[in-house]
Design a protein that fits this description.
This protein is an alpha/beta fold. 56% of the residues lie in helices and 13% in strands.
């Protein structure tokens, strides 16, 4: 059995050394360094990340570190899916996916692996506990969690930090929705899982690269992964609210003149309900567009990569030799 670790990065040279030091210390303290492989997906980095990875490989305590390069910037979710599709995982292997920016605490991986050993046929999904974020972010996220659970009926809200038994990996590799939202796409597959809660740690550099609008877009895409349920609930809810608003307008109009103040109150309530119904439709449209754009970007990128590979001159392929052919199949190579 091997312990395979998969993470994605882009332009993370300021924090890569810290991550690699912490990861190496973790696998050695856990006694799994000889069976560990760290796959890192380079999402089109343009900084010195490659040099840092080369320097790490030269260390005597380094774990094997294949690098999978995306053909273009695919975003964190697309890069993880691109990577998992190119990792060879045996049935008895264990695959751990996580973010390498420090917010997923690698020091907690041994305890998560132990949870997986208790039921090796199940996923271990990690839900975030306490967060080191601003009050505004926490309020928005709490509102999103409430909306997500209401619309999807799912009680677990996982992130990229999870333990995947090897026999479940092929199903994940064939699911296109995993490419637009890694954690929710896996949750949607309906495979058996156990849930664990782990607190979110501060990023290594102390400052996240994502802003509120990026997180909102990510959340909208996540909602539409469960489109069968979400679409139906939003339609029914919006029409029900509009029906109540129309009934209130009719009641306000039919009220006698001597209670005109009550009619005005009812009309204002009706206006509020109409605005809420409009917001539901807006959420529906925005979520649908978000997932459509992400799906198109991912599959157009895959198509472009395949065409570039098909146009590769035969003389170049022949001169590259067997190793290049192996790297082309696995998507790995040196940085």
């Amino acid at each position: 059995m091997r312990y395979l670790f998969l993470t994605a990065f882009r332009n993370e040279s300021p924090i890569l050394r810290t991550f690699l030091d912490e990861f190496t210390a973790m696998v050695r303290q856990a006694g799994i360094a000889d069976d560990a492989v760290l796959y890192m997906v380079d999402d089109l980095s343009t900084d010195r990340s490659g040099e840092i990875l080369d320097a790490y490989r030269a260390r005597p305590d380094a774990v094997p570190l294949p690098v999978i390069r995306t053909p273009t910037n695919m975003g964190n979710q697309g890069a993880l899916f691109y990577g998992i599709a190119r990792v060879d995982v045996a049935r008895d292997d264990v695959l751990v996916t996580f973010d390498c920016d420090g917010e997923d605490d690698v020091r907690q991986i041994p305890s998560v692996l132990e949870a997986g050993k208790q039921d090796p046929d199940r996923l271990v999904l990690i839900e975030r506990g306490r967060r080191r974020e601003s009050l505004r972010f926490k309020l928005f996220f709490r509102a999103y969690k409430t909306l997500f659970r209401f619309l999807t009926g799912k009680q677990v809200i996982p992130n990229n930090f999870m333990v995947i038994p090897g026999h479940l990996v092929p199903a994940i590799q064939r699911s296109p929705l995993v490419g637009v939202h890694f954690a929710y796409g896996i949750l949607k597959l309906g495979v058996p899982y156990t849930a664990q809660t782990r607190d979110r740690r501060a990023r290594y550099g102390g400052k996240t690269s994502q802003n509120l609008f990026m997180l909102v877009s990510h959340g909208l895409v996540g909602l539409m992964v469960f489109y069968e349920v979400v679409l139906a609930k939003l339609f029914v809810l919006s029409f029900a609210v509009m029906g109540v608003a129309a009934a209130l307008v009719a009641a306000g109009i039919l009220l006698p003149p001597y209670v005109a103040w009550a009619g005005r109150v009812i009309l204002w309530i009706a206006i509020g309900l109409m605005i809420a119904a409009s917001a539901g439709f807006a959420l529906l449209v925005a979520s649908g567009l978000a997932i459509a754009f992400k799906l198109n970007v991912y599959f157009l990128t895959e198509l472009a990569a395949e065409r570039r590979g098909a146009r590769k001159p035969l003389s170049e392929a022949a001169s590259a030799g067997p190793r290049a052919a192996h790297d082309g199949r696995s998507g790995t190579g040196s940085s």
